Amino acid sequence: MKRYLSLLATLLVTLTLCCPGIAFGQSGEITSAEADAVEHLLLLSSQKRQLYEGTSEHWEKPTFFADLIVDELHHVEILNSIALDYDISIDDGWWGCFTIFWAVEELDFLCGPYSDYSWWDELDSFVTATAYMEEYSIRKLLQSLQETDEQVLIDTYTEMLAVTYNHLLQFAMYLHENPFDYEAQLLDQADVDLALIEAATMIGGDFEINAGFNDAWYEPATDGQGFFITVYPEKGTVFVGWFTFDMDFPSQDVIAGLGDACQRWLTAQGPYDGNQANLVVYNSSGGLFDSVLAAPQLEPIGSITLQFENCKNGTVSYDLPSYGLMGEIPIQRVASDNIAACQIQTYLNH
Prior knowledge:
Layout: H1 2-17, E1 22-25, E2 28-31, H2 32-58, H3 62-85, H4 96-102, H5 123-146, H6 151-175, H7 189-204, E3 215-218, E4 226-232, E5 237-245, E6 263-271, E7 276-285, E8 297-308, E9 313-320, E10 325-333, H8 339-348
């Protein structure tokens, strides 16, 4: 019976895909492939909503599934509106589940009464299966985005993708103490990790400085000078090395044995609070290259404030009263390698 239904579903999908055409709407026209994607995603969201409603009652976990149900209902409403706008026919009869899920081996359990109900007795098994379903939704949305240039579809799919990322994160949080331990079932692990990071970033809210900020930072407009920032979470402190230059060029008779006589290295270290650190700045002087005979002298010359907007951008505000200098420097990372680590840690801190 299952094989018969599978063949029937395949036949129905084939009949839909083999008949090319164009659907017209208020905002333009779409191809039959784009129309098929709208139908597929609409039926997918509809099935997910029904599934979450049923399981919410079965396991008596209304809070866990409440937002998921609302999200999928919202997706159904948006896609129904698009379908009406473009005059797309939606075949949402009894075979809708089989059209969407039956050809996907890991999801055919959703199309009872011929499915294996072992998952129904184990919430962990169900959450694992529905996490797979969200990965499937991500893949379908990414494919649909690549295959359309219609702005209303791009906007809709982009919004749906962000929500689906969040759904996957919710299931990963249930399955693992650290949701980033979740192992991909359908997508590449790198794609799943990026989805979880994106979702964590969206719901992370306010964040604290963490070890993910360890990096070289600079202002592109003044390339050639910048900051090395190192965070020590266990001590709750941050160290800043500020590589910059003097206020004026030295006279021609000033010669440096190594490097340039105009180079300056300022340092700061102290506690941080939230996304900000107020630090005393020191000027190092009196030392010699690779020598212990002349101990460098540290002279406090003012203060700086580090403030980060997110894991990618921040601002250094400086006040050096002895030199009459005050201002702000917008900073960004020299490289993006540690952004993901920063975003993950930001989420875990909450």
